[in-house]
Structures are given as structure tokens and as C-alpha cells.
């Protein structure tokens, strides 16, 4: 898979204890990579990272700690870096705006600055979000060339992370900058609302549903008409890993920003998602609720992934209702059988991918 470029490669992952980071670390281990993770301790109990019991070098520290981060990167000497460490909640960003801005902006700058001074690093992929875009009403969804912006601290911080990344590319990495670091390619990757087993993050739709249902509670649903680009965690990670493959292969034209979102048919409203989940887990009961004085959230977010589809030959594998079916299956196995089915689901995903995407060919 992925032209075997990850086999025996040193891969540095920030945010490896988070939901996406733990799934990414699992997949990289499967690909034969030597993984070093740098992150705060797992944010919830239970959490996917601890349940996986991964065999990797794990450092618990803050991405804002430049000296400690520098020592870890210098010691490990990675060839590629995936930067997922972030304060990732819109609602939390209203509670802790300074922490959000420092973590997502200064933390990103710290990492890129360290990587450009580390000779072994050939590629860095900075993970941002669909919320980094200024709001527009384009029916085809946001494209990579659309205006960046944000009205809340989280969205603003992620737009700024994009600007920081672009700044470093133009100031220090482009051939005409006068301060070129050879062999390092820099990208950002923007995705939508990720679903899958092992997420217990507060104020996220599916974790809230699972948490309440496991306790036989009715789930309060806010913003039932809000539209989001839903995608399975393995689909978006396949985009990150595929992009990283092309960077390790030296494809300099692939630097810059990339969207990895679902098909337009999977950009559906919250109520539709809840009803689909209930079809796979009838125990789910819910009611819509109105929260007074709630922070503003964008009503519609859609992503256009045409660039990744045409230039990388990337596309989702578990689209449609299957992403929700697999998510429910994971949690059912956990709560009813005490089974952690992540490794098996990864194998199932790879088997399905063989028939539809080129990166999965053996």
C-alpha cells in the first residue's frame, strides 16, 4: 500500500493521543513505520489511544513548549511529520480563547520552525479544518483557493495556522526565498466532521449520542438542521497518508493546501445523521433542544475535494450510510462485548479499498 514508502520510515505524529491521531498511529504501525508521538495526555476516559495499547515512542508534553518539542524532534530525526495536535472544539474555544489561539497558532509555528532546522525532515503535513474558510454560499463547497477566515476563536486559530504555514513556505522553503531548506515539502490538509469508533470528545454529535445511549439517556440534539461534511476517520486519514506518500516521493507540485472531504451526498444535516444512527442502534432516543445564548456556529459547511480526486486519485471508501454503520458497530462491540475492533475495522477498510482506490493495491 502507498507504494510501500512508509515501511521502516520514521514518522513523527503530534496529537497522537487524540481521536484521529490514535487511528493514524495504528495505521502507520500497520504500514511498518517507526512512530514517535508528541501530545498532551489522552483528553477523555475512556479514550482510543489507551485502548489500542500501541507500540510507539510516546511523549506527553505541550506543543507550545518549543524547547521540549525541539529536543524530541531532534532526537527522533523523522522523515515525515503529521501535525494534528490542536485545541479542536469550537465551543471550548469560547471558554478558553487564549489557550486555543496559542496552541493552534504558536504550536504550529513551533513545529514548522523546528522541522525546517532538522535535516532529516522531508515532509510536514499540518492538519487544519473546513472551518478555516470565510463563510460563503457556494453550493459546490469550499475550494482550496477560497478566502480564509473565522468568526470564532477556533476557526480564526485554524485560518491563522494556514497563514503561518504559507508564510513559512514562501519565506524559507521556496527556491526564491533566499533561505531554502532543501528536501522539505510543506502542506496543509483540511477535512470535515470525522466519525468513527473510539471518540468520546465532549460536544461532538456522535460521542454525545453514544455516551447518552450507553447510559440509557435521551440525547439532546442541538442544531438539527445544520449541514456538515461527514466522513469516516479512515477515509480522511487515507488522504493524509496518500498526500504524505507523494511528498516522500519528492513531488514538489503537491505542496500547499488540500481538501479531503466526503462526496456531496454525504454533506447532510444533523437530524439525518441521528436518524441513520438510530436505524443501526434502535436504543438511541433523542429530542431536539434549544440552547439559549449559545455561541454562534456556522449553519452550513461543505467541502470541495476535486483537487484531491483529480491530482491524487483519492476518494472516500466508506461513504454513504456505511460510515455510520461501522461507527455504531465499533461502539456496540465496545459496550456489549468489551472488544476493541479498530484493527479489524482497519483490515476491513483496506479490503474494501482494494477494489476502488489505487493506493490500496498490493
Gap from first CA to last CA: 6 Å
Shape: globular
Rg, Å, rounded = 19 Å
- Percentage of helical residues? 40-55%
Helix count? 12
Largest sheet: 7 strands, parallel
Overall SS class: alpha/beta
Mean pLDDT: 93
Please trace the helix and strand order, writing H or E for each element. Answer: EHEHEHEHHEHEEHEEHEEHEHHH
Strand order of the largest sheet: 3-2-1-4-5-6-10
Oligomer: single chain
Fraction of residues in β-strands: 5-15%
Number of E-type strands: 12
Q: Low-confidence parts lasting 5 or more residues at pLDDT below 50?
A: none
Explain what you see.
With 362 residues, the chain is of the alpha/beta class. The chain has twelve helices and twelve strands. Strand 1 (10-14), helix 1 (19-30) and strand 2 form a beta-alpha-beta unit. Helix 5 runs parallel beside helix 6 and helix 9 (270-280) crosses helix 11.
Features:
362 residues; alpha/beta; seven-stranded parallel β-sheet; three-stranded mixed β-sheet; 12 strands
Describe the protein's topology.
Layout: E1 10-14, H1 19-30, E2 34-39, H2 48-52, E3 57-60, H3 66-76, E4 80-83, H4 90-95, H5 97-116, E5 123-127, H6 153-173, E6 185-191, E7 193-195, H7 205-214, E8 219-221, E9 227-232, H8 233-248, E10 256-260, E11 267-269, H9 270-280, E12 286-288, H10 306-311, H11 322-337, H12 342-354
Parallel strand pairs: 1-2, 1-4, 2-3, 4-5, 5-6, 6-10, 7-9, 8-12
Antiparallel strand pairs: 9-11
Helix pairs in contact: 3-5, 5-6, 9-11
